[in-house]
Amino acid sequence: GNKSSYLKWFSEKNYTDVLFVFKGNGFGVRWFINSLKKAPATRVPSIKKREDLVLLLKSFVLQAEALSLGKQKDIHLTPFFEYEYLKHKKNILYNDYVSFLINSFGDVDSTLVEKKYEKGLSAGNFIKPKSVIFSEIRTKTREEIDRAYNLFLSLDNFVFVLKEFGGKTKDPVVFGTGGPLASLAFGLSVGAVSSPVENTNKTFSIIRVEKFIEEEPFTLRSVYKQIERQIKKTAQDSIKKNLTANLKKKHNIKTLNIQ
Alpha helices of the chain — where are they, by DSSP H? Predict the structure, then answer.
């Protein structure tokens, strides 16, 4: 789970129990939920067992104690604290503002997706590579595969031998993937049967090429979400990169060039 799922689960249960007592004060589930809301998502660990929850509760208590002691000793009034506070406050505000801009980007115009799709096709993108379908007989020993191959040679009936030795037809394998057997298949013609080969895991195989599927464009529908994500990421990266310049332009802020 994560911070969001924990908040949802604890909030839905509407617990009012006291979890523990520290320095004479009771700390309940509502306190835990409030502490969880304030914590950065990256600081909330995965809770898989009781000990994980106990450690998280301890960390929240320690944070609260540190803040309380700091206030008692007026640490928040020291120049060092004020410097660090302003530095982190600036970063927090900046990151929150960037997140707000990114999350408010909205839906991508479908015409932009279509244009990027057409442009991608022209550049050779969004193309489903050539693939091959082959049937395989696989055995554990050289003797078994030789017996299967000799039976095929004598009967000239691969389908019978495939069934006899428990072989099967594989799903399409894309060119450049699938290991040595796929490479072997791409070197054969349709209907051709290979001689016995030893696999990298010390098993043995015979294959027959059933069909080649030529490369073809992916449909717009099948890659629509992918293109949409690409457009959003490009826009979000642009927001991050040009934020300072855009804010200066928006508020007519001039930068002085001091020689």
Answer: 3-13, 29-38, 50-72, 79-103, 110-122, 142-155, 158-164, 179-186, 220-250
Percent of the chain having pLDDT more than 90?
47
Residues 6+ apart with CB under 8 A from 210: 133, 134, 135, 169, 190
Angle between helix 110-122 and 220-250 (nearest 10): 110
Query: How long a stretch of residues is the chain?
Result: 259
pTM: 0.51
> Using alpha carbons only, what angle is made at residue 256 by residues 254 and 259, rounded to the nearest 5 degrees?
160
Side chain identity, residue 11: S
CB-CB contact of 3 with 36 (8 Å): yes
d(CA 232, CA 224): 12
